[in-house]
Write a structure and sequence with these properties.
The protein is an alpha/beta fold. It has twelve helices and 15 strands. The strands form four sheets. It has a six-stranded mixed sheet. A five-stranded mixed sheet has the order 5-4-3-7-8. It has a two-stranded antiparallel sheet with strand order 1-2. α8 runs parallel beside α11.
Length: 399
């Protein structure tokens, strides 16, 4: 029995060696190119020339990763009579305002031999938190995957944020910017979906007309073939000097801490302002509090120019002010920071509410007048909290 097992092991090992050799040989001949997987790697770039396509120009080639990591090229749409390319992104309020209209157009023309693809040209490293005030997501590859699922996109959503390898050849001026190409892949239309950004006020009339005319083999009038593409400017990777400057300016902002009594806290919780108030109760001895705290600073930077304010409240003992301030400075917490001015933690619990068991952290999103719109007992889920903020009627995703 032992001899049989040994022979089997030798045979298996020989097969394994043969397979490895075969795989190495195939790899050398690029036989596995079709199963390559994509790993995003956004890079800083020197400023480059951005092309501007003219009507009649041939569609530049592209081969880019879809949200599933598999590559999609222009050749995958060669059978379509019309190809529509929408340069869009996650964060832009205008792009979000047009999302459902674009989805509806894709549904309408899916059986009319019209192909649709969306490309995000934006570099994640060229995007500041301050530019994310109308969204819960940035423009990185992982965030694109989330947006694709959230909105149930019915078209490929391709990433070109590493070095803008193909977007530079198309030259999208803003997001969204649509390009329509005919059967020979010559440009027939470039510009907006329609002339009214607010959802419910238009129905992608410009894009629909361009598709219909192109399907019929008819040219659009000169003033119809190219329209302005209104929206957020394309975030090219060389536009990050302002990003670096703004980040450094934030780090230089003064950080201080003020003591607050339970009575002062009670007044704070009434939120007698005209803004959404986000309060995080934390302490320097609370591990989860320390780990998640930078998320709150990013949230403040995202929504701070809207009707929103983040406030931190330390539950450390009053004599720990120096320790609290040291931590806050290390996290660049340039927001209203409070330290509870009592060692009686139960007095604080009475103010916050009996449903709080006293464990940290706890986070409250409070409307003007004191109504709690969102409460998190324990660690936050950053994406869920951002959605609670941006989808609140006081904030919103559109202008």
């Amino acid at each position: 029995m032992k001899t049989i097992r040994l022979s089997t092991a030798i045979l298996s090992f020989s097969i394994l060696l043969f397979a490895c050799g075969a795989q190495e040989e195939k790899t050398d001949s690029n036989a596995y190119e079709e199963v390559e997987t994509f790993v995003p790697n956004p890079q800083e770039l020197e400023e480059q020339e951005v092309s501007k396509l003219a009507i009649g120009d041939k569609a530049p080639y592209f081969r880019l990763p879809n949200i599933d990591g598999k590559f999609v090229s222009i050749d995958d749409f060669e059978d379509a009579d019309v190809l529509v390319i929408n340069f869009t992104c996650n964060h832009c309020p205008t792009a979000q305002a047009y999302e459902e209209r674009f989805i509806d157009v894709v549904d309408e023309y899916k059986n009319k031999n019209v192909a649709f693809v969306a490309i995000s040209p934006n570099s994640p490293i060229g995007l500041l938190p301050e530019e994310l005030g109308y969204t819960d997501l940035s423009d990185d590859f992982e965030a694109m995957q989330i947006r694709y699922e959230d909105m149930n996109y019915n078209f490929p959503y391709l990433y070109d944020g590493d070095i803008h390898e193909y977007s530079l050849a198309y030259g999208p001026t803003a997001t969204p910017h649509v390009f329509v190409f005919d059967k020979e892949r010559k440009l027939s239309y470039s510009g907006r979906l329609d002339a009214s950004e607010k959802p419910g006020t238009a129905n992608a009339e410009d894009l629909r007309k361009a598709i219909e005319k192109t399907l019929a083999g008819e040219a659009l009038d000169e003033d119809e073939a190219i329209t302005p593409a209104f929206g957020c400017s394309t975030k090219w990777a060389w536009k990050n000097e302002f990003t670096k400057k703004t980040n450094e300016e934030w780090k230089k902002k003064p950080v201080d801490v003020e003591k607050i009594s339970p009575e002062g806290l009670a007044k704070l919780l009434k939120n007698e302002t005209d803004e959404l108030l986000l309060i995080n109760f934390w302490a320097t001895w609370c591990g989860p509090c320390i780990v998640e705290y930078p998320e709150f600073i990013e949230i403040q930077r995202m929504y701070g120019d809207r009707d929103f304010q983040f406030v931190s409240l330390s539950m450390d003992n009053p004599n720990q002010e120096d320790k609290v301030l040291k931590f806050l400075k290390s996290k660049y917490s340039a927001v209203p920071n409070y330290l509870i001015d009592t060692e009686d933690k139960y007095a604080v619990i009475d103010v916050v509410g009996k449903d709080w068991d006293g464990s940290l952290p706890i986070t409250l999103l409070i409307e003007p007048g004191g109504n709690i719109a969102h409460k998190v007992m324990g660690e936050i889920k950053p994406l869920e909290l951002k959605r609670a903020i941006v989808d609140h009627p006081m904030i919103g995703r559109y202008y």
